[in-house]
Design goal:
Layout: H1 2-12, H2 16-51, H3 57-160, H4 168-173, H5 178-184, H6 187-192, E1 213-215, E2 225-227, H7 244-252
Antiparallel strand pairs: 1-2
Helix pairs in contact: 1-3, 2-3
Amino acid sequence: MTAFYLEHYLDSLEHLPTELRRNFNLMRDLDARAQVLMREIDKLSDEYLVNMKNETKENKKKELDKIQTLFNKAKEYGDDKVQLAIQTYELVDKHIRRLDSDLARFEAEIQDKAINSNRALEDSGSSKKGRKKLKEKEKRKKGTASSEDESKGSRKKLKKGGSTASTAATSATGSGSQGESNTLSHPADVLDMPVDPNEPTYCICNQVSYGEMIGCDNTDCGIEWFHFACVGLTTKPKGKWYCPKCIQDRKKK
């Protein structure tokens, strides 16, 4: 692209030196003619001033007309020289303006190419990021699905196990001493432990399972499982047991 602009610009400059040389030669010739006339005018003016007293009125007028004609001719040469100078300036200025225009277009094309290149890089980067995000979403979905399956399995185990439940740690291992169970059954100790965000929550405290828990015998209970301490129990009651919310709902009915 640079060679294209340069080639065309050099082609346009091919005749410029010849045109400039012709104009300068004409201006030099006009200047020389004007100088000859000015010397002739000076000579006639001196003669006129010397012979003015002895010449008749008609001769004086003729001499003055002759000097005036030379002045007019010298002025024409000067005007022609000025016109040539203006023409020469415009000739050079035309090529300068063309050079500025070509440079502006060349810079604009370079900027457009740079912008298009950056957009292409951004698009490729965005597509890669999009694919990466999709993969991460799929991984998260798989992880969430597996966590939900584990949660459902835990809740099924709780219901099968009766109205009380051990701590999460004891249920997972299926073993552990009575001392460990008592230690984890303390709510403050359990709440201080790191909690898996995917682990299901129960009870009116909306916390994970820990310690001893009791299940509400209302099959439509929205919470299902409760910590002993949260519902004011210390031992498992005999017979059926309903949570405070279900008891209020049964009374309203």
